[in-house]
Amino acid sequence: MAKGNAPDHKCKIGFVQAAIWKNDTGFYSVKLSRSYKDGDTIKDTDQLGAGDLLNAAKVLERAETWIADQQ
């Protein structure tokens, strides 16, 4: 996963997102993040609150399904 490259696919529910990249060996990597607002700027973090956990589980399930469909 090279920095600056757009992911192959994204799954998002609420503020939680999974970004999916296919690496050079043909395997997929998934980055889970949550968006939040800092003043007027939208930022991402890898820290989840208790209220984010169900959305995280659902987003990861969607990511897994998308990856399985690619193979």
Strand and helix map with partners:
Elements: E1 9-13, E2 16-22, E3 28-38, E4 41-45, H1 53-70
Antiparallel strand pairs: 1-2, 2-3, 3-4
Beta-strand content: 35-45%
Structural class determined from secondary elements = alpha+beta
Order of helices and strands: EEEEH
Largest sheet: 4 strands, antiparallel
Total number of β-strand segments?
A: 4
State the strand order across the main sheet: 1-2-3-4
| Net shape | globular
Q: Kindly report the average pLDDT value.
A: 94
Write structural notes for this entry.
The model has no long low-confidence stretch (mean pLDDT 94). The radius of gyration is 13 Å and the shape is globular. It has one helix spanning 53-70; strands at residues 9-13, 16-22, 28-38, 41-45. 25% of the residues lie in helices and 39% in strands. The two termini are 19 Å apart. The longest helix has 18 residues, at 53-70. The protein is built from one helix and four strands. Strands 1-2-3-4 form a four-stranded antiparallel β-sheet, covered by helices on one side. The chain has 71 residues and is of the alpha+beta class. The protein has one domain (9-70).
